[in-house]
Every structure is written in structure tokens, then in C-alpha cells.
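dumping this here so i dont lose it
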């Protein structure tokens, strides 16, 4: 869950508090700095839904939509 006083990201004033909180939570997980399992670079992130890639070495791995693994 979100910490008390944490600011919400995206969506502005739309969609209601429940969905904005959920979006913030998912967004934080999506944008977490990740280390490439192959070269150790931090430029590892989601390339497309379910596809995670390292921008440095091109290492590709399948994952879930918003996280590398469940
Ligand atoms: Zn890499």
C-alpha cells in the first residue's frame, strides 16, 4: 500500500481516489530501477508489455506487464 502522505502520479483529478492510488502503486513498480541480469547495468526496463530489455546490451527476457516476475 501507499505510505501516508505519498504523492500520487499521473491521471490528474480523474477516475477517483481508488484507481489513482492503484495506478500510482503500479507505476512505482513499473519504474523501479532494475539491474540487468546479464551485464549489471541499470538501464534494464520494460520494452513492451511482457517484454523486458536492457538498453545497454540488448538482453531480453519475458515477464509480466508491470514487473519482471510476479
Ligand atoms: Zn544488460
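and the seq i came up w/
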Amino acid at each position: 500500500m501507499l505510505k501516508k502522505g505519498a504523492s500520487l502520479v499521473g491521471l490528474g483529478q480523474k477516475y477517483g481516489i481508488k484507481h489513482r492510488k492503484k495506478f500510482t502503486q503500479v507505476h512505482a513498480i513499473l519504474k523501479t530501477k532494475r539491474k540487468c541480469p546479464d551485464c549489471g547495468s541499470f538501464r534494464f526496463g520494460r520494452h513492451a508489455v511482457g517484454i523486458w530489455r536492457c538498453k545497454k546490451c540488448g538482453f531480453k527476457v519475458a515477464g509480466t506487464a508491470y514487473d519482471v516476475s510476479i
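The mean pLDDT is 91.
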